[in-house]
Amino acid sequence: MANHKSAAKRNRQNTIRNARNNHVRTTMRTLVKNVREAVAAGDSDAAQTALAKAIPYIDKTSTKGVIHKATASRKISRLTKLVNNLA
User: Fold this and answer.
1) Alpha-carbon span 23 to 37, nearest angstrom
2) How far apart are CA 40 and CA 25, in angstroms?
3) pLDDT tens per residue, range 18-74
4) pLDDT at position 14, please?
């Protein structure tokens, strides 16, 4: 338990930020999974649309500081490569 008013506020902020970060990270992982499933199914159109949804969200995730910008770039690069090899 926090002993100071500022420490209590910090705990409240961390709880809210943790919940938001978890939501953003989970959504990003779901979008990445959708791309991979479409590629595994061999559906080029579905893979392209899933990739079009995933790329901006991955960028937004890195902008919010949930993941590092190099990690975002690597994820986007690998997914794009995966979809392009399908076509």
Assistant:
1) 21
2) 22
3) 999 999 999 999 999 999 999 999 999 999 999 999 999 999 999 999 999 999 999
4) 97
Q: Could you tell me the fold of the domain covering 5-86?
A: Methane Monooxygenase Hydroxylase; Chain G, domain 1 (1.20.58)
Cα pseudo-dihedral 61, 48, 84, 25, rounded to 10? 20
Structure tokens at 74: 């690597």
Please say whether the beta carbons of 79 and 49 come within 8 A: no
- For residues 39-62, one letter each, b for 16 or more C-beta atoms within 10 angstroms of the residue's C-beta and e for the rest, the string is beeeeeeebeebbeebbeebeebb
CA neighbor of 17 nearest in space, from 64, 81, 75: 64
- CB distance 47 to 86 below 8 Å: yes
CA distance 15 to 18: 5
Provide the residue ranges of all domains of the chain, joining segments of one domain with +: 5-86
